[in-house]
Each structure stands twice: as structure tokens, then as C-alpha cells.
Design brief:
This protein is of the alpha/beta class. Helix content is about 40%, strand content about 20%.
Length: about 500
């Protein structure tokens, strides 16, 4: 694919998609010890385009043998020190070179994610910008973090050093394939670790392309490896490995709990989790521009087909404006219908695969059965591809499945409330605590409610705001890890205390 060509129209992206050749240049094999290789067992799996149902490629399906091989190379690379003991400023240069290569290949990378998991290409391009920014930010951070000199008397010198952990296994989800990869891999590499990436079997292609770019950028042999495959095979093997020092995961809460058990059953490796969410988005009646807020509330759930961990899936609206506000949300949703993911004008794309498609439709049926009032959507679109339109339920209660369980699809549950106390109680009535939103013009109320929300992040008069300087993560059963910002580097490094006695 030409790096100089910048696609703009639907036809441009269709032409680029037609030009992809997985058998010539685009790798589908595992990346182990600086080489693309078939899985040890020779197994492969098909990755499909959910917008058409067509098979994109057969990808290497790694298992425990591949994990053992990759971990061995990662450990050897770490101990050799070519990367782990390289001066931070020199690691920075390599990672900045990788970011530049990602920039030069951003259209191809975005296209791979669009074809692989069905997201609109305009959204995928936004993901690429975020992924590139993450690599650049973490690269620039690493030579600006200092150790410490502890306060002592003249008889001693006490140092607190920050060192890389060792071997890090990163298991990333399918909804933001390359961006989530960047959030895990960039700080782990910047800190000097060897990293093994396990992309989702539903979206492995951009991770394999990143491996080729990492090699081109000059990341040493064995320092970055990619093992496509399934969670119950290669993912489990990495989690149980006695030679993996840290496990970083984004995905479901159920899987996160299982990974913590594996860590306890093996070597007590560190486990950083970013898990599920059922995020409340609270709208108070004092908002000045409800039309604007309604558009943001709709986008908060329908962006990326609702396949977003922080999706604003629980909309809490003050009852005095609820009916009128829902009408505005429904009107906004009408302009967010799914379309061809290769069309830059499409707001929504296809659901990632048939399993998730049936899961979402099952929750829509549950909503009907439980007595929620359907205000929009509710039926799958006819024709090829896995498309579900924006769906809005009103009259939802916390006892309903659609009101408490993570659906991970374009389904909005609307609750009403009469007081600030009731709004806070509804918002906090969840096992999750990944994100929360708050819309109000009352500064005193904003500060009160923000402090009382049980959430790792709160968006005030916006949804999903922030940049690379802000940590991303949750509380409760949404996990314990933090991606982005310099705080993520802390997760991938170890503190070493050094006490030196000084002879008078």
C-alpha cells in the first residue's frame, strides 16, 4: 500500500481494502524472536470481516508451546540487557522512530482494524492518532522520571531506584485493537521490559503489522513478540508462566478474575486489570443546552457500536426534563445509524462477530420481556453483515438485566431520578466503577457529586474527555490498572532501595 496516498472518500477506502494482500507482505504468522513463524502446532484460525461475513485471512493459532518459546526468548533478551539496560534516552529514540513508522502507515493500520472488527474507518483513524500519541508520550516520559535520594544523616546515602520488571505479557481486547495495544505496550517497552502481546483472536491483524514496524524501528530481538491465538490456550499459558513477571489485561471482568487466579497459582506475578463497565451518565435539569447534551449522550453509547468499556450505557435523567430529553436522544440516534465501515460518513459499523451480535440481540429481547419501554431501534438490520441500530429503552430499573449487566453493544438504558441523592445512589448501584458522566451548570453540585461517584474517572459536561496526560482505569470490579499518563510507567517498573553506609 502506498504510504503517500491519503484516502478520503468511501471509494478510496474500498480501493485500499481491495489492494490488501495477506499472502504477499501482510503477515498472519506469529512474531517470535524477531521472525514471523507458524505456530508450533501448525494450527490456524480464520479472522472474518463482520460487515460482509467474508474471511480475511488464516492466522497462526498459538498455544502453550508457543508461549513457552516466546517467554524464553523474552527472558533471554531481558537478561542480555540490550534493551533493559539501554540508556532511557536511547530507548526513547527507538520508540519515537516506531511512532513515526506508525504515522507513515496509519491508513493501512486503520484499515486492518476496520476490516477485522467492523469499526468505522473514521473511528479507526482516530484510534491511530491515539496509539501514535501514546507511543510518543511514553517515549518522551522515560528519560524525565527521576529516582530519589532519601533523607538520611551524614552516615549514609539512601537511593530509591526504578528498574524494569522483566517479562510483561499484555492481553488486549478487540474493540480498539491497536489503541489498546499502544496503551499496554508503549509504557512497558519504555520502562525497559520485554513484552509479549496476545491480541484478541477477533482482531489480530494490526498487532502483527505493528510487530513488523517494531522490527524496522530497531527494537532488539526478543524484546517485542506477538502471539495470536485464544485466551484459553496461549493466554492461559502466559498467565500461568513462572517466567512472566507482569500481566496487563483489558477485557471482561470474568476473564480478569480468572487471570488473577492464574497469577496466584503460579508466581504471584503482578496483574493489572481494566475490566468491564456499566457507566452512568447523569443529566440534571439545569443544563442550558439539552440539545447539545443529548447528542453527546447518544454518542457516549453508540460510538464504536457501543463496544466500548466506558460506554455511557446507563443514562440517568432528572424526571422534570426526562421525556423531552429522551426525544432529543432518539432524534440524535437517528443520525447515528450503522453503515459500511469503509464509508467515512458512517457513525456506526458492524458488531464484531456472530457471538457478540447474538448476545446484544438477546439483551434487547430481555429488555422487552422485563418491561422496559422501547423508544428506538430494537431490531437487527436486514442484509449481509452484523448490524444493529441504536436502541433506546426507557423506564429501566436496576433490577433489569439491561440496567445492571454490561451488554457491550448499542443499547441505552434510561433511568429517571428526582433528587441529587437519588442520582448518586443510582449511579453507584453497580459492581462496576470504570467511568461516570455528569452534566450540570451548578458548580457546587458538580463538586459534590464528582466526589461521591464511585468511579475511576468522571467526565464533567463531556464524555470520554482527556488526553495522554490523564490516567485511565477503574475501581470495584472494573479493575485496578491504569493506562496512559506517566502513572502507567509505574506499573511496569520496580522500586529498589539502596542503603549505603558512609565511613566517616
Amino acid at each position: 500500500m502506498s504510504r503517500s496516498h491519503s484516502p478520503e472518500t468511501h471509494a478510496d477506502w474500498q480501493a485500499l481494502a481491495a489492494s490488501l494482500r495477506f499472502e504477499k507482505g501482510l503477515e498472519t504468522r506469529a512474531f517470535i524472536d524477531d521472525a514471523f513463524v507458524a505456530a508450533v502446532g501448525g494450527e490456524t484460525f480464520a479472522t472474518l470481516n463482520p460487515a460482509t461475513g467474508e474471511t480475511l485471512a488464516e492466522v497462526a493459532s498459538c498455544d502453550a508451546a508457543d508461549a513457552e518459546l516466546a517467554v524464553g526468548h523474552a527472558r533471554a533478551a531481558f537478561e542480555a540487557g540490550e534493551w533493559s539496560r539501554l540508556a532511557p534516552g536511547k530507548r526513547k529514540k527507538v520508540l519515537l522512530r516506531l511512532a513515526d513508522l506508525m504515522e507513515a502507515n496509519k491508513h493501512e493500520l486503520a484499515l486492518l482494524d476496520t476490516l477485522d472488527m467492523g469499526k468505522p474507518v473514521s473511528s479507526a483513524m482516530g484510534d491511530m492518532a491515539g496509539a501514535i500519541a501514546c507511543f510518543r508520550y511514553q517515549a518522551e516520559c522515560i528519560d524525565k522520571l527521576y529516582g530519589e535520594v532519601a533523607p538520611t544523616g551524614e552516615e549514609a546515602l539512601a537511593l530509591v531506584l526504578r528498574e524494569p520488571l522483566g517479562v510483561v505479557a499484555s492481553i488486549v481486547p478487540w474493540n480498539f485493537p491497536l489503541m489498546m495495544t499502544a496503551w499496554k505496550v508503549a509504557p512497558a517497552l519504555a520502562a525497559g521490559n520485554s513484552v509479549i502481546l496476545k491480541p484478541s483472536e477477533k482482531s489480530p491483524l494490526s498487532a502483527l503489522r505493528l510487530a513488523a514496524l517494531a522490527r524496522e524501528a530497531g527494537i532488539p530481538r526478543g524484546v517485542f513478540q506477538v502471539l495470536p491465538g485464544f485466551g484459553h490456550t496461549v493466554g492461559k499459558a502466559l498467565a500461568l508462566s513462572m517466567e512472566v513477571d507482569c500481566l496487563a489485561f483489558t477485557g471482561s471482568t470474568a476473564t480478569g478474575k480468572q487471570l488473577m487466579q492464574y497469577a496466584g497459582a503460579s508466581n504471584l506475578k503482578r496483574v493489572y486489570l481494566e475490566c468491564g463497565g456499566k457507566s452512568p451518565n447523569i443529566v440534571f435539569a439545569d443544563c442550558r443546552n439539552l440539545d447539545r447534551v443529548a447528542k453527546h449522550a447518544a454518542a457516549a453509547i453508540f460510538h464504536n457500536q457501543g463496544e466500548v468499556c466506558i460506554a455511557g450505557s446507563r443514562l440517568l435523567v432528572e424526571n422534570s426534563v426526562r421525556e423531552a430529553f429522551i426525544d432529543k436522544v432518539v432524534a440524535a440516534a437517528e443520525r447515528m445509524q450503522p453503515g459500511d465501515p469503509l464509508d467515512p460518513a458512517s457513525f456506526m459499523g458492524a458488531i464484531v462477530d456472530d457471538t457478540q451480535y447474538r448476545r446484544v440481540l438477546g439483551y434487547i429481547e430481555k429488555g422487552r420481556e422485563e418491561g422496559a419501554r422501547l423508544r428506538a431501534g430494537g431490531e437487527a438490520l436486514e442484509g449481509p453483515g452484523l448490524f444493529i441500530p441504536p436502541t433506546v429503552f426507557d423506564g429501566v430499573t436496576a433490577e433489569m438485566a439491561i440496567g445492571r449487566e454490561e451488554i457491550f453493544g448499542p443499547v441505552l438504558s434510561v433511568f429517571g431520578f428526582d433528587s441529587e441523592e437519588e442520582a448518586v445512589a443510582l449511579a453507584n448501584d453497580s459492581v462496576y466503577g470504570l467511568a461516570a458522566g455528569l452534566w450540570s451548570q451548578d458548580l457546587d453540585r458538580i463538586m459534590r457529586v464528582t466526589r461521591r461517584l464511585h468511579s475511576g474517572q468522571v467526565f464533567v459536561n463531556n464524555w470520554a474527555g482527556g488526553d495522554q496526560t490523564m490516567p485511565f482505569g477503574g475501581v470495584k470490579q472494573s479493575g485496578n490498572g491504569r493506562d496512559k499518563s506517566h502513572h502507567s510507567l509505574e506499573e511496569y517498573s520496580e522500586l529498589k532501595s539502596v542503603w549505603m553506609s558512609l565511613i566517616p
